[in-house]
Amino acid sequence: ARGTDATDLQTIRTNASEVASGASAVVAGGRRNTASAAYSAVVGGYGAIARLHGQEAFAAGFYVNPGELQRSIYTAWGAFGGGGGSLYLDGASLSITVPTNATIAFDAFIVGRCPADDKSSAYRIMGLASDSGGTTTLVGSLNKTVIAEGDSGDDATVYVGASIIEVQVTAHAINTYWVASIHTVEISVGG
């Protein structure tokens, strides 16, 4: 069923679950798309599944099941004092989860700003997460670029494990605000 305040404009679906069922979710068109999480969106295409908070997904097809081959964009955020923490999709507790037997390439752009001293930092971190039978690992190593660092006390990394991908930051001062845009390419076939 359509979610509270959700919009679904697609006209072709094979299953009743292929709908904007999340609260304030959107399926703008296409075929066999699902937006099941709050504030998630599928802009069109064929067989995309936006299953996480605020996820934007797009697919142009699949082998066996919708959601197997797609790209997504996520926004994670948080505010921290010195010491930092994890950025979450809802700003509180929700992370990008890696489905069992899936592989996800990610490219995270991370920006932090401390209004008190007008210092900002930016990072780009790329990597590959792979899950085998419920165990998620980082394949190889992270590729990290420091775009700009307003204070040497700032830092960012990406944690991969426990079936999640999570941006983690260190803040140089109290009230440092962080946001990350995480672009992914996802495949979950053959498992």
Molecular structure report:
By secondary structure, the chain is mainly beta. The chain is 0% helix and 51% strand. The strands form 3 sheets. Strands 1, 2, 4, 6, 7, 10, 11, 12, 13 and 16 form a 10-stranded mixed sheet that branches. Strands 8, 9, 14 and 15 form a 4-stranded antiparallel sheet that branches. Strand 14 and strand 15 form a beta hairpin. The protein is globular and about 55 Å long.
Q: Distance between termini?
A: 29 Å
On the 0-100 scale, what is the average pLDDT?
A: 96
Which percent bin holds the helix content? under 10%
How would you describe the shape? globular
Q: What is the percentage of strand-forming residues?
A: over 45%
Number of helices: 0
Summarize this structure briefly.
The protein is mainly beta and 191 residues long.
Q: What is the fold's blueprint, element by element?
A:
Blueprint: E1 7-8, E2 26-27, E3 34-35, E4 41-46, E5 49-50, E6 56-60, E7 69-80, E8 85-86, E9 96-97, E10 103-114, E11 119-132, E12 135-138, E13 143-149, E14 155-161, E15 164-170, E16 176-187
Parallel strand pairs: 1-2, 2-4, 3-5, 4-6
Antiparallel strand pairs: 6-7, 7-16, 8-15, 9-15, 10-11, 10-16, 11-12, 11-13, 14-15
